[in-house]
Amino acid sequence: MTEMYEFAFDIRYDDGADEYMQAFIEDDSLRSEAVYACFDPAEMWVLESVTGDTESITAVSDLVLAESMDRDSVSGRPCDATRQTSTLASDPRRLVTFTYVSDVTYCDAVPVIAAKYVDDGVLFRQTRDGETAHWQVFVQNDDQIGLLYDTLSARLGDGLDFSFDHLTEGGQWDSRLLSPEGVRPEQREALAVAVERGYFETPREVTLDELADELDLPRSTVSYRLRRATAELAKGFVEHQP
Amino acid sequence: MTPTDSPETALVSPEWVAERLDEFAADDDAYRLVEVDVNTRFYDRGHAPGAVGLDWERDLRAADRHDILSAAELERLLGESGISEDTTVVAYGDNSNWFATHFYWQLTYYGHSDVRIMDGGRGYWTDHSYPLSTDPVDPPTVEYGRSLSPPASPDVRASRDDVFAAVGSDTKLVDVRLAEEYRGEITAPPGIDEVAMRGGHVPGALNVFWGDNIQPDEQFKSREELRALYREYGIAPTDDVIVYCRIGERSSITWFVLSELLGYDSVRNYDGSWTEWGNMIGMPIERGE
Predict the structure, then answer these.
(1) How far is B133 from chain A, CA to nearest CA, in Å?
(2) Ranges for the Rhodanese domain (chain B) (predicted)?
């Protein structure tokens, strides 16, 4: 029987530790999802989708498209490699890019490090939101995961902290990956709490500040997630009308 | 350049090794290069020319009990690896020399007189395009001409009794694992069977992550930076220090730094580490920060 294991962990970035992550730390509306493939440690390719407010997307696109910008090294040592990035899709609130990293002499990116330890195929997904990069590593067997845990955690540079999330069989693969449709998990959570607490009743039974407290999030984040979620639902509703 | 260029120290540079590859690869046993990796698959993909490959699971553990090699086992392993009592041994490996320093520590414990570590290990060697070979390396077996029993330096090794006695004393206990292991949130890394019944750390132990000894290029930080790191934690050169991790390999890095690079007076590696302490009945354990 074919097995799949999901090894998930977080890397938390201190303020100022990484130029690219800094954009996500400073801008609540920005979020990135990326899938990585790395079959040979000398090459890696990345599909990344960044979403956010219009002005945030404009600002971050310069970072994403700059070839000198190393978005992937976790050690503090920039990758010695060739990097090319091209735009696959662009709209005011979403930028989708393809990045090809080749001729790698060394590169302390999670997929490159991991590819040295896992021989039989591995798939990666990274989600960047605020100060946290959440990694999901999908493998066919778990016998190298312990090594990967010890190795990856040790490669992190100053201002980066590692925390293990889970190792499960099967995994919670998010089938909406790179898809613009639908309400995202964190938006769904905000929506669920809002409905449950009567935020959509008239008059409102709870304020945004109270929701923010309950979710332990900044008010602006909750507001943004609710707006995005309701916008997606409204658009989806209209689009699916016969 | 750093003092690592000097052959008189415990740490040698990759350049120093690269200049002597012919000597390492010679049948003569004056010099021998040894690669010991955590990931035992690495050696066959390419190693420094002439480097003998050791498998830590097969070669560096006692055959019939849970322990490091016995003196007799080590003498046999060294002889079969073309190493005599007079050989200059240089060890290197992956993960910034985890098992290379563990091997170094075992040789020091038993009293092999000349052993060094190649700075940066396998990672630095491959990242900087030093030569690699997939040729098999099998130097002529030699007689290790001196008994390694009893161990020449028993004072580099701590037993569980030593650790127990150190709790609440002036001895500085240093736990080099990740913070989440130290706090007791993780009793063993995911997918690894090196488990403990309880998580946490030895009461009073300081948590100084082993990786803090290492630069991004996998070489050791400068002596000045390393001195400052341990000073920051209040660990002084005159302190009695015991280091530990999960199975005693990562702590070998910290032992090497404190004892061999910084010249601390008294540093012991507790190789039983958490897989022993966290599984024993009645041992004191502290959790959290």
Answers:
(1) 17
(2) 27-134, 167-286
- Phi then psi for residue B226, to 5 deg, are -65, -40
Q: Does A168 touch chain B (CB under 8 A)?
A: no
Q: Give the range of the structural domain holding residue B258, as residue numbers without chain letter.
A: 157-277
Same domain, A155 and A219: no
Instruction: Find the chain B residues whose C-beta atoms sit closer than 8 A to any C-beta of A.
Output: 38-39, 41-42, 95-96, 127-129, 178-180, 186, 188-192, 194, 210-211, 214, 216-217, 250
- The CATH number for B107's domain is 3.40.250.10
Domain boundaries, position A112: 5-169
Classify residue B248 as exposed, middle or buried by CB count within 10 Å of its CB (0-12, 13-18, 19+).
Answer: buried
pLDDT of A239 over the 80 cut:
no
pLDDT, tens digit (0-9, with 9 covering 90-100), for A44-59: 999 999 999 899 999 9
CB-CB: which of B128, B189, B211 is closest to A149? B189
- CA–CA gap between residue A3 and residue A15 (Å, rounded): 39
Q: Do B174 and B256 belong together in one domain?
A: yes
Per-residue confidence (pLDDT) for residue B24, from 0 to 100? 96
* Facing B216 at nearest CB: one of A75, A144, A147: A75
State pLDDT tens for residues A99-146.
999 999 999 999 999 998 887 778 999 999 999 999 999 988 888 888
Task: Report ipTM (2 d.p.).
Answer: 0.87
| B179-221 pLDDT per residue, tens | 999 999 988 788 777 789 999 999 999 999 999 999 999 999 9
Torsion, CA A122, CA A127, CA A128, CA A134, rounded to 10: -70
A109 → chain B, closest CA residue: B216
Q: Check CB contact under 8 Å for A150 and B96.
A: no
Please indicate, yes or no, whether residues A102 and A214 belong to a single structural domain of this protein. Answer: no
Active site residue B245: yes
**Is pLDDT of A182 > 80?**
no
Q: Are B190 and A148 in contact (CB under 8 A)?
A: no
**A187, exposed or middle or buried, with CB in 10 Å at 0-12, 13-18, 19+?**
buried
pLDDT digits (tens, 9 = 90+) for B230-250: 999 999 999 999 999 999 999
Q: Tell whether B147 is covered by a domain.
A: no
Q: B186 with B80, same domain? A: no
Q: Which of A141, A169, A197 is the last residue of a domain?
A: A169
Residue A73's contacts (CB-CB under 8 Å, 6 or more residues apart) are A79, A107, A108, A109, A157
Work out the mean pLDDT of chain A and round it to a whole number. Answer: 87
Predicted local distance difference test score (pLDDT) of residue B5:
40
Residue A177 resides in a domain:
no
